[in-house]
Amino acid sequence: QVYVVFSEELKCWCRALIESVRSQADHYQLGCFLVDYAKYCSVASENIRVLAGAFVKIPYRAKKCSLHCTKPLTLHLDFCENTAKIGPAKRWDTAAIQHFRNLL
Asked: Which stretches make up the Tudor domain (predicted)?
């Protein structure tokens, strides 16, 4: 379901999908994907609203996507055998993400 959240970074209300919820001392922190800006942000629970009728039907300007058949790789170091091999990883490391963004 799409909600409306206030983005502190953009200083405006944006449509968002809620990705995660984290409990804080006095409120909840929501991890959101802004569907019109293709950005991830963190929002306090008091800055979320239900999306009103007609706005639900407006198509998103951004869509989540992934590269077809592209899996993350990482360098595995074995200090005992003094070797380094490239192998599969569970997630992309920050250097690979930054390199990809620079290419775009």
From this structure: 3-68
Domain with 46 in it: 2-55
d(Cα 84, Cα 42) in Å, to the nearest integer? 37
Establish how many alpha carbons lie within 13 A of residue 13's alpha carbon, considering only the half-sphere containing its beta carbon: 11
Distance CA 51, CA 54 (A): 9
Give the containing element (helix H, strand E) for 96: helix 94-103
Q: Whose CA is closest to 61, among 33, 35, 41?
A: 35
C-alpha 33/C-alpha 39 separation (Å) is 6
Q: What is the mean pLDDT of the chain?
A: 86
Q: What is the pTM of this model?
A: 0.59
* E strands, the chain, in order: 2-7, 12-23, 28-34, 39-44, 48-50, 73-78, 83-88
